[in-house]
Design goal:
Elements: E1 12-13, H1 16-19, E2 27-29, H2 32-39, H3 49-52, H4 60-68, H5 72-82, H6 86-92, H7 114-126, E3 141-145, H8 149-160, E4 164-168, H9 177-180, H10 189-201, E5 205-207, H11 218-223, E6 228-231, E7 237-238, E8 251-253, H12 254-262, E9 280-284, H13 288-299, E10 304-309, H14 320-328, E11 332-335, E12 337-344, E13 350-363, E14 369-373, E15 379-382, E16 385-388, E17 392-393, H15 397-401, E18 426-428, H16 431-434, H17 439-459
Parallel strand pairs: 3-4, 3-6, 4-5, 6-18, 8-16, 9-10, 9-16, 10-11
Antiparallel strand pairs: 1-2, 7-17, 12-13, 13-14, 13-15
Helix pairs in contact: 2-4, 2-7, 4-5, 5-7, 6-7, 8-17, 12-13
Length: 460
């Protein structure tokens, strides 16, 4: 029987004042009773609009129906059938633009908490002994470059089909952006590791500290007997604004800042990873990465953290939940402002940032109104740390060492609708193709590529 409540079942969270100074997970998840209550809000629509919003085609009404009946293990199996990383997606997917954005319940009230239910099922199964079957080997070898979400998805789907899959990861830990980018308070690393362990239990081999394009080339991987290759090397090359003062001590790319904190554990007392002990921090940008950097800076002890964004709150691209959490934690949003230079002291350290106020003009190519500078509106922010979070692009290493592999003007690999690149037998997906985007879109590309690789090898 559907529960006709107009609002989602509330979810417990750490108190903002407490959590703003620790790295423990903010959202605490549903209890079994809450999950059943929320699942009963699903109308089980015949046309399944929610599924049209899911890049990996999770059978949403089916899994929710099982949760409503209290069959949590069955629900998890349904999710896991198409989604390799449910505990991750339940936490970091932008559900409001995807499955929940298409939920009929959202027309007159709040959509069903699909993400919260997915997370509940994954967490419920996390400490249960998993019976992972190793598929029968089919005698074919595939190499996967990078160990982020698109690669892990492709590797998992191929392993299920019996392929001998080896993943080559440049860092010392697998997980890609899930490990180095997204902070512990949003995605605990033990959860990512659990999902990776499930893959290795299926027979996927992961080789770390393997920088493809340096240690081995794509052509050498082919010579080693790999019949196809999937490139999911992400977009780890940070962008800067090109303004005066970006070379000063105390200016970070969000990428470097978050990698030091997450992958190199700078937030833990017993690690001596160097990171600024900041008092006043400005984070430039308005995406999820900017929110992660700002909230991490606060947790590392900053007294004041600003998010400087050139458009208005309405155009801010970060997830609503992240913005809401950041505001609760005391982060100040300086919207309709843009930095024009970073000012240093006599020792070459950041001491201030000069900004200019903006107003919104006509829409630009992205459909958002273009920010225009207001003449004579300059002002200075006193800061000791600036974090640039204005996007990233793919590292040029692979494309510059692989003849026959084409990229566009932004350095993103060019693929067709099956994720096939311009080099035969080589496929690519995720941020290496799209530039920085979401975890779930990268996973969708990994799924498509795995299906295409299977077809390609079988047709040879």
């Amino acid at each position: 029987m559907a529960n006709m409540s107009m609002t989602k079942t509330p979810i417990a969270e750490q108190d903002p004042k407490v959590r703003a100074r620790n790295f423990k997970e903010v959202t605490l998840g549903y209890t079994a009773e809450q999950a059943v209550e929320e699942a009963k809000r699903c109308l089980n629509c015949k046309h399944r609009p929610c599924m049209s919003g899911c890049p990996v085609s999770v059978r949403i009404p089916e899994f929710i129906a099982q949760v409503a009946e209290g069959n949590f293990e069955e629900a998890y199996k349904i999710i896991k059938d198409t989604n390799a990383l449910p505990a991750v997606c339940g936490r970091v997917c932008p559900q409001e633009n995807q499955c929940e954005g298409k939920c009929v319940r959202g027309i007159k009230g709040e959509p069903v908490g699909i993400g919260r239910l997915e997370r509940f099922c994954a967490d419920y199964m996390a400490d249960k002994p998993m019976n992972i079957e190793k598929p029968e080997p089919n005698g074919h070898k595939v190499a996967v470059v990078g160990a982020g979400p698109s690669s892990l998805t492709a590797a998992g789907d191929l392993a299920k089909l019996g392929y001998d899959v080896t993943v080559y990861e440049a860092f010392h830990t697998a997980g890609g952006v899930l490990m180095y980018g997204i902070p512990e308070f949003r995605l605990p690393k033990s959860i990512v590791q659990h999902e990776i362990d499930n893959l290795t239990a299926m027979g996927v081999k992961i080789m770390t500290n393997m920088v493809i394009g340096k240690v081995l080339s794509i052509d050498e991987l082919i010579e080693m007997g790999n019949e196809a290759i999937f490139i999911g090397s992400g977009a780890g090359l940070p962008r800067f604004m090109g303004i005066e003062g970006e070379g000063l001590v105390g200016v970070y790319s969000a990428n470097e800042y978050l990698t030091r904190i997450n992958l190199m554990k700078a937030y833990l007392e017993d690690y001596d990873t160097p990171i600024m002990k900041s008092e006043n921090v400005a984070v430039v940008g308005g995406g999820n990465v900017a929110m992660d950097a700002a909230r991490s800076a606060m947790r590392l002890g900053a007294k004041k953290v600003y998010v400087v964004y050139r458009r208005s709150m309405d155009e801010l691209p970060a997830r609503k939940e992240e913005v809401h959490h950041a505001q609760e934690e005391g982060i100040e949003f300086l919207v309709l402002n843009n930095p024009v230079r970073i000012i240093g002291d006599e020792n070459g350290r950041v001491c201030a940032m000069e900004c200019v106020k903006m107003e919104l003009g006509e829409p630009d190519a992205s459909g958002r109104r273009r920010p225009v500078e207001i003449k004579g509106s300059e002002f200075t922010l006193e800061i000791d740390t600036a974090i640039m979070s204005i996007g990233t692009s793919p590292n040029p290493l692979i494309r510059s060492t692989t003849p026959g592999l084409s990229a566009n003007d932004h350095g993103c690999l060019i693929v067709d609708e099956n994720e096939s690149t311009t080099k035969e037998g080589v496929y690519a997906g995720g941020d290496a193709v799209t530039g920085a985007a979401t975890v779930i879109l990268a996973m969708g590309a990994g799924k498509r590529a795995a299906a295409a690789i299977d077809k390609y090898i079988k047709s040879k």
